[in-house]
Write a sequence for this structure.
């Protein structure tokens, strides 16, 4: 203990830091707000920018979180409970302010306090930048999980990286995507607390040295390393009105001091300061490629940096509480790996236990295999992470030795189970042999974990029969499913206040903690008065979306049209192209005068393309050019509109989901692991048009066939068809598709840029098109027509909409987390003692 803490602890006024609880009423909070605004931030009412109002309000709320945060930490320590660490390279948290207000139950008081000062809460909220530390589904899932863990009072801590630059900002120029840096921390982040006292030292490079002591005990030292410091920043994660505040701990890379000094002594001071930069680069930027390999050294550095710092932090805390005895460590700790991105943790935990805490291999391996659990998020083979052995050798030599040893012992196990089956050994090896041998990160994760799960029923089945078949034969009980979910706090209560109030009035507010209670809504689907209110709320939400689209896309959406929305990362397997083909088909019908019984339709597409993914970028360009042509043609007035929403992100989805009628979930069957946008739309009363893929299957099971627009091949059907897929035959024999392709190929949408869409066209006509866009076209446009028809029958549509919300209870991340805790983590809920 340092002298200062000694002083404080032994001081007669030792409890001078036990402050009285902060006031939670409008007046008390308004006082704090004014003090922060005027004193802490030094502003006065002449300041024109509302940004400082956002800052002052955030600090006001953060104070109220901090008191609960300490109580939660103390409660976990006192209970000495089992804990889980959610390791993820991505946490797509979005905005914190409105979430904190909702979960603390301070919405009304804050709004009132501000109102009395002449300030509008909504305007203040809009000043918060999104914390965009993730690409898409996987990162947002981590954020929803943290919300659920805190709301269920589970001792779970998130570990991630504090990227200086989050997901790039997408700007559209001439219909094309351009990337701009997202310097989200520029104006400071009121939601983080730096904890330099928990800084860790992370080794890179160097070499290993083996030695044997006089008792014959072997040990290895990793020496001559270039170390980087990991400084933690804590972000509070409030539970829903339960006084629990959990922690998301994000690591920032910083240079060590001696790093500079060595160079300085050599007489090159400026160079040594420049070196400092290299260390700090590790957490500079989020990699923006979802679902594709990148193979860059910096990315591997990020992965090890996260794994090493987080494990050190956990072991440090264990030793603080239990001393150097690890016998009960596995009973009390669990690491959940969010995909293979942090899978190097398997080897790093081995290293720390052996090299830094003197455990023998067997004891360490037992701990690893009882504490690590791995979640897979993709079936695309090209997205399975592999790292060149040579990169490991250079950057993490000690880790490579451990991986080789894990592999040798594992392959011996395989050989004893299947003697002589060398092909199986080659297939299952953690090392893929070849000219440039690779470490297979998914296999490392499987071998090192006691649980491996997929994220939807179909996905988990396909993993077992496909990618991980051999491993399932060896360890069938390791594999399990945990269907994804989303938090209804953010994705219903917070983003859809109109519906929230109607639900509260109709069935009470129990659904905010227990989403299965939405079932009680079912009888109201038949009630005309209730339907009318449902309709009115949807129209208000559509109006908000209309304004957003008008402002961001410069396209006017008429309120009475069906709002048909596809927002997600741009990827061929998600088939935004199929959506575009349908829009062109509708355009053809309009031009042909085939518009009897027409349902006006507004199609909204949004999403980012990985900066190096040329086909995805071309698809964005196509969407923008088709939209421009259609919106500019007077014949489409009142019938069809299309818009591309730039810079799709969490805070935009909060406006989009409540205002959507039709949710597009149209991936090639067997390719989308789960999807989670599908769940957000369903909760907000949108109806899905979708394939039998990912969680769509379970959504349809819950909501019933009659409340879901199903089309397309099955996953098995897709695979069966590969050998004899003939898109050109399909195009030639379907007049609607032929007409669409003709218009596309005529250059109608790229009059001033000949050939701009050649690759896209080629992909559709390619017999080896892995996504089989043409194969599902006919069924898709037919089912789209059924959806349009259904929308014209307002009462029918409203019934379907209400039932979608009523039956969305299964897709709460509370349900998902309850399953993780029951089957994998085995955690007990721990409530903090309330002082506030
Ligand atoms: C890999 C290597 C180098 C750099 C980046 C990456 C990388 C980054 C992000 C690879 C993949 C991702 C993200 C994947 C992802 O978001 N997957 C989605 O996960 C969701 C949550 O489980 C599912 O619902 C989606 O179906 C799945 O696509």
């Amino acid at each position: 203990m340092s002298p200062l803490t000694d002083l404080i602890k032994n001081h007669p006024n030792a409890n001078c830091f036990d402050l009285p609880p902060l006031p939670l009423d409008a007046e008390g909070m308004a006082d704090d707000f004014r003090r922060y605004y005027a004193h802490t931030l030094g502003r006065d009412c002449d300041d024109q920018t509302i940004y400082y109002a956002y800052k002052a309000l955030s600090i006001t709320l953060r104070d109220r979180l901090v008191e609960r945060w300490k109580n939660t930490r103390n409660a976990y320590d006192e209970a000495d409970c089992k804990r889980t660490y959610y390791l993820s390279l991505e946490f797509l948290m979005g905005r914190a302010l409105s979430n904190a207000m909702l979960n603390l139950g301070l919405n009304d008081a804050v709004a009132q306090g501000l109102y009395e000062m002449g300030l509008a809460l909504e305007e203040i909220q809009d000043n918060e930048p999104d914390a965009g530390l993730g690409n898409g589904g996987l990162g947002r899932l981590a954020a929803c999980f943290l919300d659920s863990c805190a709301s269920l009072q589970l001792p779970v801590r998130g570990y991630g990286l504090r990227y200086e630059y989050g997901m790039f900002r997408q700007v559209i120029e001439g219909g094309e995507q351009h990337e701009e840096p997202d310097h989200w921390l520029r104006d400071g982040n009121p939601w983080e607390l730096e904890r330099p006292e928990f800084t860790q030292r992370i080794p890179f490079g160097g070499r290993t040295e083996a030695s044997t002591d006089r008792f014959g005990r072997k040990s290895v030292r990793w020496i001559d390393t270039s170390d980087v410091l990991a400084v933690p920043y804590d972000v509070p994660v409030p539970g829903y009105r339960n006084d629990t505040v959990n922690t998301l701990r994000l690591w920032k890379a910083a240079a060590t001091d001696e790093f500079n000094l060595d160079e300085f002594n050599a007489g090159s001071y400026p160079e040594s300061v420049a070196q400092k930069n290299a260390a700090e680069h590790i957490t500079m930027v989020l990699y923006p490629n979802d679902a594709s390999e990148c193979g860059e050294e910096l990315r591997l550095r990020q992965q090890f940096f996260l794994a090493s710092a987080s494990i050190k932090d956990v072991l440090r805390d264990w030793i603080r509480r239990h001393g150097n005895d690890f016998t009960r460590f596995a009973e009390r700790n669990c690491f959940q790996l969010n995909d293979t991105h942090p899978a190097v943790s398997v080897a790093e935990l081995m290293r720390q236990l052996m090299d830094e805490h003197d455990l023998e291999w067997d004891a360490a391996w037992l701990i690893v295999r009882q504490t690590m659990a791995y979640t897979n998020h993709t079936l695309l083979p090209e997205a399975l992470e592999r790292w060149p052995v040579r990169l490991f050798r250079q950057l993490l030599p000690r880790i490579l030795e451990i991986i080789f040893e894990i592999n040798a012992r594992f392959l011996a196990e395989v050989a004893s189970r299947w003697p002589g089956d060398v092909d199986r050994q080659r297939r299952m090896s953690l090392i893929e042999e070849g000219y440039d041998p690779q470490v297979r990160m998914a296999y490392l994760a499987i071998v090192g974990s006691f649980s491996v799960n997929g994220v939807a029923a179909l996905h988990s089945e396909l993993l077992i029969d496909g990618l991980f078949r051999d491993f399932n034969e060896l360890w069938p009980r390791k594999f399990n499913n945990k269907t994804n979910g989303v938090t209804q706090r953010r994705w219903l209560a917070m983003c859809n206040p109109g519906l929230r109030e109607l639900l509260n009035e109709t069935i009470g507010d129990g659904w905010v903690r227990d989403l299965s209670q939405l079932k009680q809504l079912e009888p109201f689907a038949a009630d005309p008065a209730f339907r009318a209110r449902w309709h009115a709320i949807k129209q208000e939400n559509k109006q908000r979306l209309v304004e957003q689209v008008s402002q961001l896309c410069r396209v006017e959406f008429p309120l009475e049209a069906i709002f048909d929305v596809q927002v997600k990362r741009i990827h061929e397997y998600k088939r935004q192209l199929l959506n575009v083909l349908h829009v062109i088909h509708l355009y053809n019908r309009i031009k042909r005068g085939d518009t009897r019984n027409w349902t006006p339709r507004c199609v909204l597409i949004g999403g980012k393309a990985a900066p190096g993914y040329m086909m995805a970028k071309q698809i964005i360009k196509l969407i923008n050019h088709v939209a421009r042509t259609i919106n500019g043609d007077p014949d489409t007035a009142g019938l069809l509109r299309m818009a591309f929403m730039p810079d799709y992100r969490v805070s935009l989805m909060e406006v989009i989901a409540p205002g959507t009628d039709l949710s597009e979930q149209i991936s090639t069957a067997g390719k989308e692991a789960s999807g989670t946008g599908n769940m957000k739309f369903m909760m907000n009363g949108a109806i899905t048009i979708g394939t039998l893929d990912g969680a769509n299957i379970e959504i349809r099971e819950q909501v019933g066939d009659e409340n879901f627009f199903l089309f397309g091949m099955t996953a098995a059907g897709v695979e069966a068809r590969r050998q004899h897929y003939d898109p050109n035959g399909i195009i030639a024999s379907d007049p609607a598709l032929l007409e669409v392709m003709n218009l596309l190929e005529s250059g109608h949408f790229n009059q001033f840029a000949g050939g701009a869409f050649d690759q896209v066209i080629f992909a559709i006509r390619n017999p080896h098109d892995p996504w089989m866009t043409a194969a599902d076209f006919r069924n898709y446009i037919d089912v789209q027509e059924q959806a349009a028809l259904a929308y014209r029958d307002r009462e029918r549509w409203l019934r379907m909409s209400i039932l979608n919300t009523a039956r969305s209870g299964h897709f709460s991340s509370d349900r998902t987390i309850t399953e993780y805790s029951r089957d994998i983590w085995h955690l007990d809920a721990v409530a903090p003692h309330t002082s506030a």
In short: Residues 543-807 form a domain with the Rossmann fold fold (CATH 3.40.50.2000). The mean pLDDT is 95. Residues 135-138, 141, 287, 289-291, 293-294, 299, 377-378, 383, 385, 455, 484, 672-676, 694 surround 26Q (CB under 6 Å).
